[in-house]
Amino acid sequence: MKKLLSLPPNLVKSFHEITHTDAVEWFCTSDPIGARLGSGGGTTWLLEACRQNETANSTLSFEEWLAKEKRILLHAGGQSRRLPGYAPSGKILTPIPVFRWARGQKLSQTLLSLQLPLYEEIMRKAPDSLHTLIASGDIYLRNSEPLQTIPEADVVCYGLWVDPVLATHHGVFVSDRQSPDKLDFMLQKPSLEELGHLAQTHLFLMDIGVWLLSDRAVGLLMKHSYQEEGKQIKEYDLYSEFGLALGNNPRIQDKELNELSVAILPLPGGEFYHYGTSPELISSTLAVQNLVRDQRAIMQRKVKPHPAMFIQNAEVNLQLTVENSELWIENSHIGQNWKLRNRHIITGVPCNDWSLHLPSGICIDIVPVREKEFAARPYGFNDAFKGNTNDKTTLFMGQPLSDWADRRGICPISATDIQNAPLFPICRTVEELGKVLHWMISASQSEEGKQIWENREKMSANQLSDNANLYRLFSQRENFRRNNWPMLAANHEKSIFYQLDLADAATAFAHNHIPLPEPLPANTPLMKRIHDSMFRAHVLQLSGQEYIKEQQQAFSLLREGLIGTVISGKQSPRLNVYRDQIVWSRSPVRIDLAGGWTDTPPFCMYAGGNVVNVAIELNGQPPLQVYIKPANTYKIILRSIDLGAMETISTWQELSDYRKVGSPFSIPKAALSLAGFSPEFAAEKFTSLEEQLKAFGSGLEVTLLAAIPAGSGLGTSSILAATVLGALADFCGLPWDKNEIGRRTLILEQLLTTGGGWQDQYGGVLQGLKLLQTNEGFNQSPLVRWLPEYLFTDPEYRPCHLLYYTGITRTAKDILAEIVRGMFLNSASHLSLLTEMKTHALDMYEAIQRGDFETYGHLVSKTWEQNKSLDSGTNPPAVEQLIARIKDYTLGYKLPGAGGGGYLYMIAKDPVAALQIRKALTTSSPNSNARFVEMNLSDKGLQISRS
């Protein structure tokens, strides 16, 4: 998905290098110097510039080029008059502090990196006819609820429900109450009286500047952005001109534009944060930080002297107090001889030993110029940098510029626009900077400071933006951040360190050769120790050092935490059957339909999980079966019918040998241990296994049958473990219901070191179609919401569910371990996708509730896309070739479980398409083991019987 950015001219030259972005994926340009194009003309210029850049040696027409891919256009080329601190680098690259309640953010995050994921999600969800999204670069939008379906229309605009007073300062979409999703007309900054009158018959949404355009709409926007001769772009506004010509009753009559179809969508759970001014820099950041006030959800334990106080990429050698409210310090050094008050924005200050007193409302921005020089730019917190310098309403440092000049005994500075007034001296040394700042700010009688100001070259605000050395600016920020890393790690109890994207942190530590922090003490919260071990392992790995021991420690600590939830509940197994009785348990398998992976520790332990799955029988039978009967000797005899294997266990040592992956009896050995036949989990003490079995009353003979190939993706190993535990609970008189069996299966898999989540076992133990949900914490006990089975059992749909064994085998352990590593590291890419999967499970839940078969199929396909994004090994070439043969006949398909092989689940478009799929794969199988298997929904789940 291509990103097109309109930026300040100086930033265009360095954008890719300083942001480490790919020039193919990111195109940057600026509006023509001196030209006023407006948002519509600017959009035309940006598209034309990108097309010319890409098609210089191509015969593609503009229409063909436009239809080739989806594009996100961000307008961020303004002068940033009211936010001078980030004018040189562009507001879009403003560093934003890590949210105190969020996990997986980066210390280097910017307004751009925060706003882009929502725009990308909108474009992924948009119909194929919508190729262009236009947005503003100085806002941050959040949606706390899933995006709705985006309709087919020429123009789709997002808005927010807001208070009418706020709406008077923005564009407004007005819709008839009878058709709220259709635009009636648009207004620009309507009066409160006008909105009050409209409210009787209409609804209104505030325009948040996110517009999607069809190729037809883009063509008309561009047509209207050119002069009549069609050769030169003119000033044309997307919102106040193009927008006012849209709707059923447009305010501007234009036959071509009036005919465009328009849809209006409220951003679900939408939040709008503007970063256009110095006060908004603090107020918007504070509002986002305060979105979560529940202290249990806030990982950072530090209590700041004042909440409106933000420091990042900086060194501050002052003790800040409650008096220092509305404070922003970034990319700066504040020495011990500084004195601060409140309402300060301090940016770009290099290391110094100044004695500087900042009065309330005074801000400082230091701009690197050329190779070694600095520009001193003090300004006022509310300065607008707008107006004639001779006008008393034109303020500089909170006072009329003429008064400022008079107090310092200098000649008046004359300019028709203060933005072009040469106010800011270029200093050769840091020492000069301090002296001239002191003079400019405090009106002291320092002749030295005055002489520096008078004798040095001076630049205007516009010239600073044009001449700033952005490489030096960003290099200084990187140096401050490099020095912050070890301090954040050392101060982990009060800092945001362990909630960060630790993969990103590890890269910074390794790249900058930062020594690892001291190991965390044993009394540190377990989850933090888990994160720490994997962080250390990743740093060592990136540094080319031995890392396996630290990595294994992370998994070991996770096991310790999960096993600890049952270790206190020791078991006392007692023979609970007659000598000639057999306990017989059997279970279906499961297909995960949405939300798989969100059930996996540690993600579910700090975020909870949502999974929709279905229990199924194969060829009319539950394929996993376990038989337990008393043995004639005081030993444990294990048999596997499908593997043709047998083992006799006489000692605890033999029983505890269950961690060997691939052993035919790892599962029953671990299950027997959890049932109390191992000293670790037994309530009573014995000298040997034989003594314990004598006290129990007999030996045990356990027989397993898994009538399903290994690596099926149907949750076989987890459900087989639950089936064994269920049979043992009945045989040994243990008070375990289905929920407890599922919970202990999670522990069992930790004992085996295979890991895994909870959805597999609950998917098979519990019957039917259901949504399973857990909250955060080590004790993962899902809440079950049963779903109607109509889409699986109705004669119209039942033939459309197809299950095909691909004959391709794989083990989930390696895939699982890699994804869990990402969870341990708070990897932003992993957490973002997992959070999306949680939401997707709720979409699936609603589609099934509605009985919407077509949407159900498409959502299964989306699940598959999510799984592939999480791990590329999910979809090997052999599987991709198989899918290519049948996908045109399907609504959706996926490999259940971790993917990579096993079974392929398909939802045919209709019964006729199902027959076509069967014919295609039966007449030409990919291998000798591939075959269709009949599936039907299980209405019983785990069953336990006695002879």
Kindly describe this structure.
It is built from 31 helices and 35 strands. It starts with a strand and ends with a strand. The mean pLDDT is 93. The longest helix has 23 residues, at 828-850. The chain is an alpha+beta fold and 947 residues long.
Summarize the structure.
36% of the residues lie in helices and 20% in strands. It is an alpha+beta fold. It is globular and about 110 Å long.
Fill in the keyword field for this structure.
947 residues, alpha+beta, nine-stranded mixed sheet, seven-stranded mixed sheet, 36% helix, globular
Seen as an oligomer or otherwise, the chain set is single chain
Rg, nearest Å: 33 Å
Provide the β-strand percentage band: 15-25%
Principal-axes shape call: globular
- Report the strand count: 35
**What is the distance, rounded to the nearest whole angstrom, between the alpha carbons of the first and last residues?**
62 Å
Tally the helices: what do you get? 31
- Residues in helix, %: 25-40%
Which spans of ≥5 residues are poorly predicted at pLDDT below 50? none
Structural class: alpha+beta
Round the mean pLDDT to the nearest integer and report it.
93
Major sheet characteristics: 9 strands, mixed
Write the layout of secondary structure elements.
Elements: E1 2-6, H1 9-19, E2 26-29, H2 38-54, H3 62-66, E3 71-75, H4 111-125, E4 130-136, E5 139-143, E6 155-160, H5 164-167, E7 171-176, E8 185-188, H6 192-198, E9 202-214, H7 215-224, H8 238-242, H9 255-258, E10 262-266, E11 270-274, H10 278-289, E12 309-316, E13 327-334, E14 344-347, E15 362-369, E16 373-380, E17 395-396, E18 399-400, H11 401-407, E19 424-427, H12 430-442, H13 447-455, E20 458-459, H14 461-467, H15 470-490, H16 502-511, H17 526-542, H18 548-567, E21 583-587, E22 589-594, H19 603-607, E23 610-618, E24 624-631, E25 636-640, E26 645-649, H20 652-655, H21 666-677, H22 689-696, E27 699-706, H23 716-732, H24 738-751, H25 759-765, E28 769-773, E29 783-786, H26 790-793, E30 801-805, H27 812-824, H28 828-850, H29 853-870, H30 877-886, E31 890-894, E32 903-908, H31 911-923, E33 931-932, E34 935-937, E35 943-946
Parallel strand pairs: 1-2, 1-3, 3-4, 6-10, 12-13, 13-14, 14-15, 25-27
Antiparallel strand pairs: 4-9, 5-11, 6-9, 7-8, 7-9, 15-16, 16-19, 17-18, 19-20, 21-24, 21-35, 22-23, 23-28, 23-34, 24-27, 25-26, 28-29, 30-32, 30-33, 31-32
Helix pairs in contact: 2-7, 12-13, 16-17, 17-18, 18-24, 21-23, 21-24, 23-24, 23-25, 28-29
